[in-house]
Design a protein that fits this description.
The protein has 131 residues and is an alpha+beta fold. It has 3 helices and 5 strands. It binds adenosine monophosphate (AMP).
């Protein structure tokens, strides 16, 4: 059965898409740690990130780098933090989190609240900032 993230990449479940190519998909985390929290996934369905084949994994980080640079252009932050958990969704993904302090990437803190319009506008802005 397809994972929820495969369904998102296929457009079967809505998401606030930031970018996509034939192998990867990036979208806003629906329950963000901070404004600008993005998830990057391979379209290939693999649960655990360290089971992803070498080339797909390496290229995924290069794809994520372009997204991170775009987030930086839109969301005021010191840098983009990177995290991999995978405890909730069994489809490999990288969290990109704008950081102003170490606490911004604590997964135990209360999540940021954005309206649907704010999510849409943010996804559009990040998408347009990709070089
Ligand atoms: P983890 O698997 O522990 O890395 O956590 C999964 C992450 O995916 C969490 O930060 C969730 O907020 C996020 N998430 C779960 N479902 C969706 C969805 N439908 N759209 C966007 N983000 C999601």
């Amino acid at each position: 059965m397809a994972t929820i993230f495969s369904k998102i990449a296929a457009g079967e479940i809505p998401s606030y898409k930031v970018a996509e190519d034939n192998r990867y998909f990036a979208f806003l985390d629906i329950n963000p740690l901070v404004k600008g929290h993005v998830l990057v996934i391979p379209k290939q369905e693999v649960d655990y990130i360290f089971d992803v084949d070498d080339k797909t994994l390496a290229d995924m980080m290069v794809f994520a780098k372009r997204i991170a640079k775009a987030i930086e252009r839109v969301v005021p932050c010191k840098r983009i933090g990177v995290a991999v958990l995978g405890l909730e969704v069994p489809h490999a993904h990288i969290h990109l989190v704008p950081l102003n302090s170490e606490a911004d990437i604590s997964f135990q803190k209360p999540r940021a609240k954005l309206s649907p319009d704010e999510f849409s506008e943010l996804a559009k802005q990040i998408s347009e900032a990709i070089v």
